[in-house]
Design brief:
The chain has 408 residues and is α/β, with parallel strands linked by helices. The chain starts with a helix and ends in a 9-residue tail after the last helix. α5 crosses α9. It has two domains: 241 residues, Alkaline Phosphatase, subunit A, CATH 3.40.720; 146 residues, no CATH class. The strands form two sheets. An eight-stranded mixed beta sheet has the order 10-9-11-1-12-13-2-14, with helices on both faces. Strands 3, 4, 5, 6, 7 and 8 form a six-stranded antiparallel beta sheet that branches.
Length: 408
């Protein structure tokens, strides 16, 4: 029996309000003795942590570095080892593409490439994070020129900055395993892009179509100063996964500005809203919809973006921006408030890492007063100790008085 099978018969209706805030990649590592959370001036988070149950949560398993998909599934209570969702599906769903069993979805980056003799070398995997307006323009241009490759319809939609989604829609349902293809992103600058390599026979034709798309896109983009190449990441097909409301008995709303995070919420059956603007606008959206739902997921992206860029001070500023806007959430007086991240993204590493993530849970049914601030070292002193990410949802439900007693 998995955790969700244990919970489902215990679910009890209630009117309590549950708010889950995900500061993407919030966990860090010390630079000059202090992590980003320790360096940031965040008095509201410190006060909140002092009155909350705090701890560290492990997104997948010790030593495993999670992607954003597994990281989010865990904090939504889905075992990421049981439910594997590709980033391409999440990106496409977040951009509003309805996916079928005929589709392979791919999350793509515009990149900067240079030619060194016969070699193509990636100089910037994110094309300088080109403006979203420019990304829209060149994505539209590619769509106008690349509509079909062999038996696959080509569907393109721009995302934020350098990201876009590609859907290969074939004229027949695909075999299981058709999405098992290696990413073309080399993950480091100065290397050649990887040829899309299929893991098995079922993926051979999909890989051939993907290779043709890369070649055609590169030819069309060759006059671009920065976004002159494309990298394909997260080849994926639509999985079967239980709906969030069916499992937990709540009506849920997701508030996020980046498509991938709306995508995972849509896949789980949550309603979604994409505010225009930053943290303040997301919290305003939360306020405006507070009476219509009982579970809220609010996502903050730029903590992760700055961590990936190695921008320690920039990540601190995003934490401080959230802290300044935190009273807007607290003014709603939710019955349960959780603040955590989907994974750690230390600026020191410039990428996701395996380190446990700080978590706080505020409700009237916790001890609190064990952690002086919302930092890695202080949260380790808290009453939650080190837990698994899949423990967060059951704890939210319990503190929201939404679980019956187990057994006689």
């Amino acid at each position: 029996m998995n955790d969700q099978e244990l919970l489902k018969p215990l679910i009890e209706p209630n009117t309590t309000k549950l708010v889950l805030v995900v500061l993407d990649g919030v966990g860090g590592l010390p630079v000059n003795g202090a992590s980003e959370l320790e360096k940031a001036d965040a008095p509201n988070l410190s006060l909140l942590a002092n009155g909350s149950a705090c701890g560290l949560q492990v997104p997948v398993a010790y030593g495993i570095t999670p992607g954003s998909g597994p990281g989010h599934l865990g904090i939504f209570g889905y075992n990421p080892l049981q439910y594997e969702i590709g980033r391409g599906v999440l990106e496409a769903l977040g951009l509003g593409i309805h996916l079928t069993d005929n589709d392979i979805a791919i999350r793509c980056n515009y990149a900067t490439a240079v030619h060194e003799g016969a070699k193509t070398v990636i100089k910037d995997r994110r094309a300088g994070r080109i403006p979203t307006d420019h990304s829209k323009k060149i994505t539209q241009m590619l769509q106008e020129h690349i509509k079909q490759i062999d038996d696959a319809q080509i569907i393109l939609l721009p995302g934020m900055e350098h990201r876009f989604a590609l859907v290969l829609r074939f004229n027949h349902p695909l075999e299981q395993g058709a999405d098992k293809i290696e990413d073309t992103d080399p993950q480091k600058e100065g290397l050649e892009p990887i040829v899309p390599k299929p893991e098995g026979r079922q993926a051979q034709h999909v890989a051939e179509v993907a290779l043709q798309f890369v070649a055609q896109a590169a030819a069309l983009l060759n006059q671009e100063e920065k976004a002159n190449y494309v990298l394909l990441r997260g080849f994926s097909a639509v999985p079967r996964i239980p709906k969030f409301s069916d499992v937990y008995g709540v009506r849920a709303l997701a508030i996020a500005t980046y498509p991938m995070y709306l995508g995972v919420a849509k896949l789980l059956g949550m309603d979604t809203i994409k505010p225009e603007g930053g943290i303040a606008q997301e919290i305003e959206t939360l306020k405006n919809n507070y009476n219509n739902y009982d579970f809220f997921y609010l996502h903050v992206k730029k903590t992760d973006s700055n961590g990936e860029d190695g921008n320690f001070d920039g990540k601190c500023k995003v934490i401080e921006e959230f802290d300044a806007n935190l009273p807007g959430i607290l003014s709603l007086n939710p019955d349960v408030l959780v603040v955590t991240g989907d994974h750690s993204t230390p600026a020191l590493i410039k990428g996701h890492s395996w380190h446990p993530v700080p978590v706080l849970l505020k409700s009237k049914y916790v001890f609190g007063r064990t952690s002086a601030s919302f930092t890695e070292r202080e949260c380790l002193k808290g009453e939650l100790g080190i837990c698994h990410s899949t423990d967060i949802l059951p704890l939210m439900l319990a503190n929201g008085m939404r679980l019956k007693k187990f057994g006689a």
